[in-house]
Design a protein that fits this description.
- By secondary structure, the chain is mostly helical.
- The chain has 2 domains: 96 residues, Tetratricopeptide repeat domain (Serine Threonine Protein Phosphatase 5, Tetratricopeptide repeat, Alpha Horseshoe), CATH 1.25.40; 75 residues, Serine Threonine Protein Phosphatase 5, Tetratricopeptide repeat, CATH 1.25.40.
- The chain has 10 helices and no strands.
């Protein structure tokens, strides 16, 4: 494997773990603590805050969905993918238009190597829209790359770059993937 292929593989691994915390209520509620912990996901303490928020806090449907998805982020970061998938699915059931929950569930599928389901969820996130759509396109591109569907990967990454033209990470990923494509005459 060439240096560029090693770089690209490392970039795939590094960038694919990014998860999106779903914003929720303000103040020092359990839901807010859950949200904060989902941004620093290596702590399992957030699981308790999330569970307490789900059981005890009076949350809107959107905030309840966000809390499930935030707990799913923490589970996924700690390798508990089945629990993560369950929580993200519950978030989607509560709020089907919450694009971040689809991205988060797709990320969990990606890590379980279920690329078909990851692609389906990235596509649903794109349909749902939202402010993080470039991440859905970016992660979809990474998934296509893992499936060795290089042209589709580059197309998706190109769209991600249109939504986030200043993103160095997207630009580097495109450059690396184009080099891998050229080296392998794909």
């Amino acid at each position: 494997m060439s240096t560029k292929q090693h770089f690209f593989s490392a970039l795939l691994l590094m960038t694919s773990v990014s998860c999106l915390a779903a914003g929720t209520t303000l103040g020092q509620t359990n839901a807010q603590r859950c949200f904060e912990e989902s941004r620093y996901v290596l702590s399992m303490q957030g699981i308790n805050y999330c569970a307490d928020a789900i059981r005890q806090d009076e949350l809107s449907k959107r905030d309840l969905a966000a809390t499930y998805s935030n707990r799913g982020i923490i589970y996924a970061a700690n390798g508990k993918y089945e629990r993560a998938l369950s929580d993200h699915s519950q978030a989607i059931k509560l709020k089907p238009d919450l694009g971040q929950a689809y991205i988060n569930r797709a990320n969990a599928y990606f890590h379980t190597l279920n690329y078909k389901k990851a692609l389906a969820d990235y596509n649903l996130a794109i349909e749902a829209g939202g402010s993080k759509i470039h991440i859905a396109y970016f992660n979809r591109g990474l998934t296509f790359a893992k499936m060795k569907r290089i042209d589709e990967a580059l197309q998706s990454l190109g769209i991600a770059l249109e939504f986030a033209p200043g993103s160095r990470r997207i630009k580097l990923t495109i450059e690396s993937l184009e080099e891998v494509k050229n080296e392998n005459n794909i």
